Amino acid sequence: MRLSELQVRHFRNLAGQELDLPAEGVAIVGENAQGKTNLLEAIYYLETFRSFRAARDERLVSFGQEFFRVAGVLMEDGAGGVVGGGELVEVAAAFRARGKRKKVTLNGQEPQRLGDGLGRVCAVVFSPADVALVSEGPGGRRRFLDIVLSLNVPGYLPALQRFRHVLGQRNAALRDGRRLEAVHAWDQGLVESGGLVMEERLRWVERWAGEFSSHYRRISGVQPAVLRYQPGVKLGGARDREGIAAAFKEALGETRDRERRLGATVVGPQRDDLILTVTEAGEARDLREYGSGGQRRTAALALRLVEAATIREARRQEPIVLMDDVLAELDPGRSERVMALMEEEETGQVLLTAPKESDVRLRRDSLPRWRIRNGMVEC
Ligand code: ATP
Ligand code: MG
After folding, report:
1. Is residue 168 in a domain?
2. Chain-centroid distance, C-alpha 18
3. What is the whole-number distance in angstroms between the Cα of residue 329 and the centre of ligand 2?
4. Ligand 1: residue whose CA is nearest its atom 3
5. What residue owns the CA closest to ligand 1's atom 17?
6. Which of 136, 245, 255, 338 is the most exposed place for a label (fewest CB within 10 A)?
7. What stretches of 176-292 show up as alpha helix (H) in DSSP?
């Protein structure tokens, strides 16, 4: 997929501009705080209708303005995977601060539900902030899984929403010390929706763990790394949703006293995690506990490469690669290998930002260069 036109208005420090984007992509160079990340954030907004920096919509409206709007014209890939050889689609999103109103349109039409417009744009962001995926708590890794699966696996998002709703109700009943039946009335809904969520998470990890390891090895040069799913329920070998739901139900039975005491459900996918390890001197070490900055960044990059591969497989589109200053903090060997890997991996459009000219090395320097200053792109 390719982004051919982009319009932004009152989005963070981007006052208003219309850009025609080159098919191969562009390298955008600008000093700190000029709007490089904001521009990529605006583009990615069209995929999920949320900020990839997890900022609330109100924060995205330029200071002193009432609304923002982002619109993109995209060329989908054609049959046989010809990049940019398919249909044209216009995706637009606008948000008005007063009343917090969000409006999304696809080719000028409002979809019935916002969810129907999700994932129409296929893009992956590589950001320095991704390192938090590896180094921080499990919540960020679950959010990563949820975004990837919601966009790429039909049925995942409704199951997740149902699970969250039921969990909220069940936890409220536990917190308020309601009768046993009032709590357990939610169990069936919880294990059914939770079973689907866990099944898809497990499947995804099994499908892509090998690719994760090989990307990690390619970038690091030598080290093997492993991605594992750590379920928040003892699965005891269960693999499909019925088996997982049964294991979940059993676990609920075993934790009755504990959940009463704590006033919250203590087993389930809300306790899931992804475990990332590297093997050093024959021992598997958790990157979260022991990883160096560069090792964590490498693992985060490998996760994003797997996200891109998931889009290719599930949505049959070559994702637009949005690389926000990714070489920061990598040693020269790793940066070279990341660039080499990127050149090999993808044939699609790349939008790359960097604060210095010297960090723009993708495609043997052949990408067009733009500058950005004070929220205005100079083509
Ligand atoms: P760096 O190289 O440091 O990452 P950058 O070019 O990526 O810099 P951005 O994060 O894109 O910088 O932009 C930061 C600027 O955007 C800051 O100066 C910030 O004040 C401004 N900004 C953020 N939110 C808003 C907003 N809602 N309205 C106006 N300006 C904003
Ligand atoms: Mg930035």
Report:
1. no
2. 26
3. 14
4. 32
5. 33
6. 136
7. 180-184, 187-220, 241-254, 256-262, 287-290
Tell the residue nearest (CA) to atom 12 of ligand 1.
33
Q: Whose CA is nearest to atom 14 of ligand 1?
A: 33
pLDDT on residue 363: 62
CATH number for the domain including 97?
3.40.50.300
* Interval 311-341: pLDDT, tens: 999 999 999 999 999 877 778 888 888 888 8
CB distance 33 to ligand 1 below 6 Å: yes
The token pair at 331 is: 């040693």
Q: Which residue has the higher pLDDT, 226 or 82?
A: 226
Of 17, 12, 27, nearest in space to 68 by CA = 12
- Whether 339 is covered by a domain: the verdict is yes
Rg of the chain's alpha carbons, rounded to an integer?
A: 22
Ligand 1 proximity of 63 Cβ (cutoff 6 Å)? yes
Query: Counting atoms of ligand 1 from 1, which one is nearest the CA of 39?
Result: 11
User: How far is CA 362 from each of CA 30, 230, 344, 368, 369, rounded to the nearest angstrom?
Assistant: 17, 36, 11, 11, 11
Number of domains, the chain = 1
- Residue 7 alpha carbon to ligand 2 centre in Å: 20
- Asked if residue 36 has its Cβ within 6 Å of ligand 1, the reply is yes
375 lines ligand 1 (CB under 6 A): no
The 10s digit of each residue's pLDDT in 276-299 is: 999 888 899 999 999 998 899 999
Q: Coil, strand or helix: which one is 266?
A: coil
pLDDT digits (tens, 9 = 90+) for 177-231: 999 999 999 999 999 999 999 999 999 999 999 999 999 999 988 878 999 999 9
Using DSSP, state whether 158 is helix, strand or coil. helix
Phi-psi category of 304—alpha, beta or left, where left has phi over 0 and alpha has psi -120 to 50?
alpha
Domain encompassing residue 68: 1-122+320-379
Would 57 be classed as within a structural domain? yes
With b meaning 16 or more CB within 10 Å and e meaning fewer, what string describes 290-313? ebeebbbbbbbbbbbbbbbbbbbe
What pLDDT was estimated at residue 129?
93
Q: Evaluate whether 356 touches 14 at the Cβ level (below 8 Å).
A: no
Is residue 215 situated within a structural domain?
Answer: no
The answer to whether 67 touches 1, Cβ cutoff 8 Å, is no
**Contact between 304 and 123 (Cβ < 8 Å):** no
